[in-house]
Amino acid sequence: MSAAETQGLATRGFATQGPEAKFEAFNFVRREPGPHDIVIEIDYCGICHSDIHQAKNEWPDVMPAAYPMVPGHEIVGRISAVGNEVTKFAVGDVAGIGCFVDSCRVCDPCKAGIEQYCVKGSAMTYNGTEMDRVTPTYGGYSKHYVIDEKYALKVNATGDLSGVAPLMCAGITTYSPLKHWKVGPGKKVAIAGLGGLGHMGVKIAAAMGADVTVLSTSPSKEKDARSLGATGFVNVRDAEALAAAAGTFDFILNTIAAKHDYNQYLGLLKLEGVMVIVGVPSEPIPLNAFSLIWGNKVLAGSVIGGIPETQEMLDFCADHNVVSDVEVITPDRIEEAYDRTVKADVRYRFVIDMKNV
Ligand code: NAP
Ligand code: ZN
Questions:
Q1: What are the tens digits of pLDDT across the range 155-200?
Q2: Which residue, judged by its Cα, is nearest atom 39 of ligand 1?
Q3: Number of the ligand closest to the Cα of 300
Q4: Closest Cα to residue 9, out of 25, 24, 23, 28?
Q5: Distance CA 167, CA 76 (A)
Q6: In angstroms, rounded to a whole number, what is the distance separating the alpha carbons of residues 87 and 74?
Q7: What pTM did the predictor assign?
């Protein structure tokens, strides 16, 4: 390590060195905190399926993997230091970090607070670079993060923070399209895929007042779906149940992480219904034009949310007592958590306890 690299905040985390490699302890140096930076000592970091896609290099064309990779963008912890120009936070506050940690700050999307659509490309929390496009970013499977206060979230929670961490990605990724498409009372909404995103989608859509149904490949999740706030459950592998649900939904939020048939799900929409894709299967999925034209339907997409809307989502979740249902693990169980998540055997988010790292 050169002299320049040793300047900064020495920390430790867990990195993978390749698509098949196991996670191992990894010592590295974060930047020296600047006047606008805060240092977060991480308590918990959620495991998003996007971590798995990236760690295994399943999106090689759009988000190729750079190793060593320290994943993690569902971060919550306590502030251990603040720069002298910091105004939003104080030492001891609870703060969160989501999927990006900086952006150009001057383009129209950045000025509008939708920094995830920064025209220059925002600085992703890991498997990316700082805005200098050189310095690699390392994520939240680690002890500390150094971030400009502008890109950190205020968390007004005092109790157990494990269920708050997943709000930073799973929460905002579901809240943003549900709000954008005006989901609320009188709307019949389906959430496709009951995993990390899906279970947040059910809770948030129900809190918004919608009538929620889960579309799932796992009949064993029906009871949970109902206790999360759904009034209906469709086993999509049951042809009769699927046929009975045809043409019944105003809106579908599609959180599915693996290859499936979009056309089949579009068939469940009413006239002028909307399906928003947030799940990102690694392979392209064919779309039949008839699936859209018969019924004047809309197929749309959405990625995470900007800092102001993420803050709004955190406040909404606090007001409605919404947190994630989590299984807390120690860092030596990351591979097991990845395997179970890929098998749709997560109830409903793995969260790594980083406190003793
Ligand atoms: P997850 O916890 O693994 O949940 C995905 C769920 O999809 C599974 O639990 C399963 O639910 C369902 N599923 C899996 N295979 C399926 C198949 N072959 N056919 C139909 N359904 C299937 O994953 P997650 O963390 O919620 O993430 C979901 C996806 O969203 C990932 O692709 C991730 O990369 C992406 N993502 C996107 C954004 C964004 O901003 N757009 C942000 C975060 C994550 P059932 O058991 O109920 O069938
Ligand atoms: Zn995520």
A1: 998 789 999 999 999 999 999 999 999 999 999 999 999 999 999 9
A2: 303
A3: 1
A4: 28
A5: 10
A6: 23
A7: 0.97
